[in-house]
Amino acid sequence: MHAMLAAWTLLGVAASSDPWPAAASTVDETADSYTTAYLNVTSYDLATGVVVQTEKSEIGKFGEYHVGAASGMLLHVIGTDGDRNGCAPPVHGVQEPPDAGPWIALVRRGKCSFQTKVDNARRAGASAVIVYNDREATDLDKMKLMPSDPRNVSAVFTYKWKGEDMARMLDDMTRRVMVKITIASHCTRPYGNINRTSVLFVSISFIVLMVISLAWLVFYYIQRFRYIHAKDQLSRRLCNAAKKALSKIPTKHIKMDDKEIVGDGDCCAVCIEPYRPSEVVRILPCRHEFHKSCVDPWLLEHRTCPMCKMDILKHYGFLFTGSQESFLHVEVEEVTNDFDVYQYARGRSFMDTAQNSRTTLIGGTAD
């Protein structure tokens, strides 16, 4: 048994001429980088020297300026105040440190800084320090430490459950626990160099911009909806007015002796087809004639003569007010027994762009 323990100790000593090798502080670390550690924990039975338990896992994080490999017997240190936080010098273990060979101090987080724990363990002769968390956490903090002079020691921070597991091994007086610490990997936090104030400023600016944009879009679509609704309403009213006016426009049936057929004859300016007997034509107030089936859809949509652009609403006594500002309001009033007089205020700008001031046109009924 003693031969196996001696072999383990000699293995750690052989790595350096110093029985307590100094931790390397040359690893290029910044506030946003860290180095992880492998913890190889082996438990021996004191009576037989048989390995009871061994495990190796990447379950630690080196402290700043205290990165380096180390190995030795693990001791759960106790201060003069009887606490196991390693805050009160001098420190010693449940099992006294071996006279020959390195040893590693196991301490619990809390009551003092990481720097105090590491300094106390170094002064007591430890070659490395393992600090385990005093609270449950899914991530490990990086210990903020300063280089030790004249001898630097390795310092590793690990999880609460891992530290308590090693402490239970040490509480078993029939066992001896040996630990080997090795460097696992060097890591860098993504986006670690981004200033938090800058991120906050950009985030707030983005949110404000999004709120302003959303408010503008809501206002825009509300106005657009009102515009489309008013335009549709105006179109319906104008169409109804055109139907009333259309009912006043006379029609006639073409006969064989009508001037539209006699001689070269005339043709409809809409469909460019000559007139034929029995066809129905509509005679507009401007005296232009068209096929009824051709001109009626045109008049309902445009309300003007296809040739001379005469406005049938004006001619048949429809009163309107015009303005170039907009066309969003239409009112209907009864003025005669035969007609509805439509007031489509601000609605004729697209029909009469030359009109710059309010105009009132009052017409009479057709002959």
Question: How would you summarize the topology of this molecule?
Answer:
Layout: H1 2-14, E1 33-45, E2 51-62, E3 70-78, E4 92-93, E5 103-108, H2 114-123, E6 128-132, E7 154-158, H3 160-171, E8 175-188, H4 196-246, E9 251-253, E10 280-283, E11 289-291, H5 292-302, H6 312-315, E12 331-334, E13 340-343
Parallel strand pairs: 3-5, 5-6, 6-7
Antiparallel strand pairs: 1-2, 1-8, 2-7, 3-4, 3-8, 9-10, 10-11, 12-13
Helix pairs in contact: 4-5
Give the beta-strand count. 13
Structural class: alpha+beta
User: What is the element string, with H for helices and E for strands?
Assistant: HEEEEEHEEHEHEEEHHEE
Q: Roughly what fraction of the amino acids lie in strands?
A: 15-25%
Strand order of the largest sheet: 1-2-7-6-5-3-8
| Alpha-carbon distance between the two ends | 132 Å
Q: So how many helices? A: 6
Question: Rg, please?
Answer: 50 Å
Please identify, by name, the CATH architecture of the largest domain. 3-Layer(bba) Sandwich
What is the count of distinct domains? 3
Helix content: 25-40%
Stretches where pLDDT falls below 50 for ≥5 residues? 1-22, 321-367
CATH topology of the largest domain: Glucose Oxidase, domain 1
What average pLDDT do the residues reach?
A: 77
- Overall shape: rod-shaped
Q: Return the CATH class of the largest domain.
A: Alpha Beta
How many strands, what sense, and barrel or not for the largest sheet?
7 strands, mixed, barrel
